[in-house]
Amino acid sequence: MQIQVNEKIFLKDPNSSELGKKIISNGIELINEIGLESFTFRKLATKLETTESSIYRYFESKHKLLLYLTSWYWGWLEYHLVFSTANISSAEERLKVAIKVISKDIPDNEMFGHINLGLLNKIVISESSKAYLTKQVDDANKEGFYAGYKRMVLRISEIIKELNPNFGFASTLTSTIIEGIHDQKYFAEHLPTLTDISGDSSVLTQFYTDMAISTIQQNTK
Amino acid sequence: MQIQVNEKIFLKDPNSSELGKKIISNGIELINEIGLESFTFRKLATKLETTESSIYRYFESKHKLLLYLTSWYWGWLEYHLVFSTANISSAEERLKVAIKVISKDIPDNEMFGHINLGLLNKIVISESSKAYLTKQVDDANKEGFYAGYKRMVLRISEIIKELNPNFGFASTLTSTIIEGIHDQKYFAEHLPTLTDISGDSSVLTQFYTDMAISTIQQNTK
DNA sequence: CAATAACGATAGTATTACTTTCAATTATGA
DNA sequence: TCATAATTGAAAGTAATACTATCGTTATTG
Question: Considering CB atoms only, which of B141, B196, B218 is closest to A168?
């Protein structure tokens, strides 16, 4: 089972070689350690005992690497969502599962092949908005670089519409929930005044589930 | 009437001189034009017909300038909020006004002294999360660089608690609303699949107001 | 076994993100 | 008003960043 990522994001598929896989796995570690701003291909090359030029053969910039990581993450999470909701007939139940899937805590040692899912989740929480908060967002969007995220939002929106066909804000509610979950997790760790959440994700899941259900029901005709 | 900004954010108060004011007003323009990533003090210096070193006498980095702009914005918005809610006794009404204040569209030519509020609002929407999504967030927080944002969240949280003292997620709901409003405005312009919002802010205001009210009421004992 | 793809090594460029020093100008208050 | 301090400008310098290019060696595969 392989997660698909838009081919225009990379120059050479990092899954096609050992070096490519190391770039991804060590890239995830290094971005977590020092943050995206301090992260450079030179530092990653040193860590890998390879050269800058070798890394540039895979990704034309660290921004593309970030796009790769976030796209991969959304691909993986979509797979997870589809799997977790496959046998559930109730739309409300599927929505609850979806929110649980998004908000679930991932331990720092959970692996999917060579990819550390826990660390990747942390990157998504603290860096992924930088993938679209850029002047190049419209070009990147045209190239389809955000397709994974959009698919995820679409899937959940459709559950919401099934729950209440008269509700006109399924996409807005979905993206509010996804971004909200990431923000709240970040705030819990760094700016606790901005949140009532702390500890594990169960309270967070509950809050957004309640919020979603009551918001959706309210607009029922 | 002067908006106060934490003095540790700047080296020299940009309000204390003509050059300082130009750094702020032209900085706002230039960040809007080319985005925070491409923005440099060298380019700003060229625009101002001054030198890099002169700008560095006011701010030690462009990140500090961003912190200044966002802090100023929250200071200004808090003033606005206090003013707009001063004579309203109903907590529900005050909450509605608060959401309106945050989501209001600001025209590109609305000025407050030398500061273009419309452009500053755009910076807050597309760049302000970068002020805290950094490895230095904890140090910056200790220095009080996010005090303005936190005060804003606190004020609105208190309205929510007044509305329903049994509701335990006032801060989470407030920060979800504020961040959500910014995200939705950004999505409306750049990633429209992720939102149901388009056009002016009235629908956005209505959505978050409804969401807030129904979420708060739900947890009433 | 010949071709080709992948990688490493080295070097080079323009730009960024600053810092430092010193001289000229401007404001201020004794 | 004159001395003093504060402000700005000009110039130069540094280390790091974000790449690009070339070339030789080593694997891989057909």
Answer: B196
Query: What residues of chain B score a pLDDT lower than 70?
Result: 219-221
pLDDT tens, position by position, A16-66 = 999 999 999 999 999 999 999 999 999 999 999 999 999 999 999 999 999
Domain span including residue B196: 7-218
Name residue, tokens 């796995």. Answer: A25
**Residue B179 forms part of a structural domain:** yes
Report the chain B residue with the minimal C-alpha distance to residue A184.
Answer: B172
The answer on pLDDT for A218 being more than 90 is no
Question: Is the residue at B161 inside a domain?
Answer: yes
CATH number, residue B39: 1.10.357.10
Residue range B137-156, pLDDT digits in tens: 999 999 999 999 999 999 99
The CA radius of gyration of chain A, in Å to the nearest whole number, is: 18
> Is A201 a domain residue?
yes
- Could you tell me which chain B residue has the CA closest to the CA of A169? B196
Give chain B's radius of gyration (CA, Å).
18
Domains: count for chain A: 1
Whether residue B178 lies inside any domain: the answer is yes
